[in-house]
């Protein structure tokens, strides 16, 4: 029984598939036949519809196209307005940022100028103070050097006055020596004249005795003449001035001037005070 049922089912199934295939094929055949019959009608209807749309579009009487055109215009205007507002917003924002940047730059510039002025004023005040200190120190150094120069000039003048005084004293001594020599020469001449007169009055004596006496008188006068050192110095020019022990001939040695290193050390020391 079971074997018979299975064979019946297998025989029934192919029959159903064949029937369904046959039904589909028949419908397709009918559609093809109807399309072949109505093909020209469908194409003609589509062509007429397109031509009508073109005519209404050129004439401006197509409501659908008008609505689409208005929608596109509204969308365009919206986008244009949106773009214009965006550009204005960007321009305003750029202008505000520019103004903020300018204000910030001006503020920084003013602060920088203020700082530079303060530093410049401080530097100038420091330089002025340093120059004043240097001026005081230089005035002190100049006064010291002036005092040294004055002392040197004073010593030079003193030495020149002493030399002039010594030369005048030597000149006066030389004149007195000449006066004394002249007086002695006059005394010697008067004595010789007196001797000759006395010899003439007493008579002529022997030539040898007279010559011997004359020679004796002359030798004694000559001895008295040569015994004077001042007369010898006058005749022979060998008179030398005695060295003066009152003043020393040693030249004045001024103190050494300060060196640049010592001056800079003094300046630094005074600045530190």
Automatic annotation (TrEMBL):
Q: Which GO terms describe its cellular component?
A: nucleoplasm
Grouped into one coarse class, the protein's main location is: nucleus
> Where along the chain is composition biased (Polar residues)?
159-173, 189-207
Look up the signal peptide feature and give its range.
none
Which superkingdom heads the taxonomic lineage of this protein's source? Eukaryota
What is its subcellular localisation? Nucleus
Q: State if Transcription is listed as a keyword.
A: yes
Family matches, as Pfam families: Sds3
Report residue spans for region: Disordered: 152-223, 236-262
What the entry lists under PANTHER family is as follows: BREAST CANCER METASTASIS-SUPPRESSOR 1
Name by which UniProt lists this protein = SDS3 protein
Native source species: Cyberlindnera jadinii (strain ATCC 18201 / CBS 1600 / BCRC 20928 / JCM 3617 / NBRC 0987 / NRRL Y-1542)
